[in-house]
C-alpha cells in the first residue's frame, strides 16, 4: 500500500476544449490498447486513453482493421492516434476519425518500430522537421478538434529535436505534446530520461506529458518532479494491468491505493478477453488475446508473490480455440490463488 501524501499537480490540465478527469494517460500501443482494454482502463480511473496507432491512409480508405483500431464506442473521451507521412492522408484520416466520434486526434512522431520508420513515419519524422510541421499543419486545419503530438527526444543523442518540434507544433495550433524520454536509437534500452523532458516544458506553453518507464505508482511523482510536466502517460507499465493508470491517478490525488485482488484481476482480464473476441471474432480474437493473457498471468503472479505457473501460461497462450484458452487461463489463476492462500 502506498503513501497518501498528495503531490502538487498542474492546475486546470486541459487539452484544447477537453478537460481530462486527471493527469494520468494511457499510451497508444499497437496490439495493446484495443477498445476493450481502453474501456476498462477508463472505467478504472485513467484520465485519457489513446487508441492503438492507426495508419492514416488505411483509415482514410476504410480499411477494416484500421477502423477497428480507431473504434471508440462507449468511451466518454475518445482519442485516436494517427501515423503517416503524407499530409493529405493525415488530414483525411483526421476528418474520418472525428466524424466517427473522436474527441482528440494524436499524431505519432515517436514510434521506433522498423516497419514504421522504414515507411518514413513515426520517429523517422524527427529527422525531417519540415515534413513533420506540414503534417501537423494539415491535421490541425482539417478538424475542429484538439490535435496533439507524441514524440521522442530525438533520433539519437546527437539530434535532440523535441524542443524545436514541440515549439513548431504549438505554433501550428497543437493543444498538447507527449514526450517519451528516449531517442529513437535507444528503442526501449536503458532508462527513460525524465529530466530531459524539462527542456520541452520550458520551450512551450501548452501542456506537456511525460512518458517512459512509469511502472510503479511511486514513479509518477518522481517523473513529474524531474520533468516539470503537466501529466504522465503510462505505456508498458499497464500491460496486463488495465487498472494501473487509475491507481496512479489515485496516488497522485493523495488517496490510498492497492492493486485489485486476484479474483478481481481475473474478472477484469476475462472482461478484456471477451471484449477482444467480440471485437475481432473468436478465431482472430483469441490470437490477439494471447499476449494479454500472458501479461495478466504475470501480473497476478507478482500480486500473489508466487512464481508464474509456466505450463498453464503457455497453455493459455497457445490454445487453438477460445474455449481452451479461457480454461487454461482460469486454471492459472486458480493455481495462483491457491498458492497465495497457502
UniProtKB/TrEMBL annotation:
SUPFAM superfamilies: FMN-linked oxidoreductases (SSF51395). Keywords: Flavoprotein, FMN, NADP, Oxidoreductase, RNA-binding, tRNA processing, tRNA-binding. Coiled coil: none annotated. It catalyses: a 5,6-dihydrouridine in tRNA + NADP(+) = a uridine in tRNA + NADPH + H(+); a 5,6-dihydrouridine in tRNA + NAD(+) = a uridine in tRNA + NADH + H(+). It comes from the Bacteria. Its EC number is 1.3.1.-. Residues 25-302 form the DUS-like FMN-binding domain. This is tRNA-dihydrouridine synthase. It comes from Methylopila capsulata.
Amino acid at each position: 500500500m502506498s503513501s497518501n501524501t498528495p503531490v502538487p499537480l498542474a492546475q486546470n490540465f486541459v487539452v484544447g476544449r477537453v478537460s481530462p478527469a486527471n493527469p494520468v494517460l494511457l499510451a497508444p500501443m499497437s496490439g495493446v490498447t484495443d477498445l476493450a482494454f481502453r474501456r476498462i482502463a477508463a472505467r478504472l480511473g485513467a484520465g485519457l486513453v489513446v487508441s492503438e496507432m492507426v495508419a492514416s491512409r488505411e483509415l482514410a480508405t476504410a480499411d477494416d482493421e484500421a477502423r477497428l483500431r480507431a473504434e471508440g464506442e462507449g468511451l466518454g473521451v475518445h482519442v485516436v492516434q494517427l501515423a503517416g507521412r503524407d499530409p493529405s492522408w493525415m488530414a483525411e484520416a483526421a476528418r474520418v476519425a472525428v466524424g466517427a466520434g473522436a474527441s482528440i486526434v494524436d499524431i505519432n512522431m515517436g514510434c521506433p518500430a522498423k516497419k514504421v520508420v522504414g515507411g518514413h513515419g513515426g520517429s523517422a519524422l524527427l529527422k525531417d522537421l519540415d515534413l513533420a510541421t506540414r503534417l501537423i499543419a494539415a491535421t490541425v486545419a482539417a478538424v475542429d478538434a484538439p490535435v496533439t503530438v507524441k514524440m521522442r527526444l530525438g533520433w539519437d543523442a546527437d539530434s535532440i529535436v523535441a524542443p524545436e518540434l514541440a515549439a513548431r507544433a504549438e505554433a501550428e495550433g497543437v493543444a498538447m505534446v507527449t514526450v517519451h524520454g528516449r531517442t529513437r536509437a535507444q528503442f526501449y534500452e536503458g532508462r527513460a530520461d525524465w529530466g530531459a523532458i524539462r527542456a520541452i516544458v520550458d520551450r512551450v506553453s501548452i501542456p506537456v506529458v511525460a512518458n517512459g518507464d512509469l511502472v510503479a505508482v511511486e514513479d509518477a511523482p518522481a517523473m513529474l518532479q524531474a520533468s516539470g510536466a503537466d501529466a504522465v502517460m503510462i505505456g508498458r507499465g499497464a500491460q496486463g494491468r488495465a487498472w494501473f493508470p487509475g491507481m496512479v491517478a489515485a496516488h497522485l490525488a493523495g488517496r490510498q491505493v492497492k492493486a485489485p485482488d486476484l479474483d478481481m484481476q481475473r474478472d477484469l482480464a476475462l472482461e478484456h478477453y471477451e471484449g477482444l473476441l467480440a471485437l475481432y471474432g473468436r478465431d482472430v480474437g483469441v490470437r490477439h488475446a494471447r499476449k494479454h493473457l500472458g501479461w495478466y498471468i504475470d501480473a497476478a503472479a507478482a500480486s500473489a508473490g508466487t512464481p508464474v505457473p509456466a505450463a498453464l501460461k503457455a497453455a493459455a497462450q497457445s490454445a487453438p480455440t477460445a474455449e481452451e484458452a479461457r480454461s487454461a487461463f482460469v486454471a492459472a489463476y486458480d493455481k495462483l490463488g491457491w498458492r497465495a492462500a497457502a
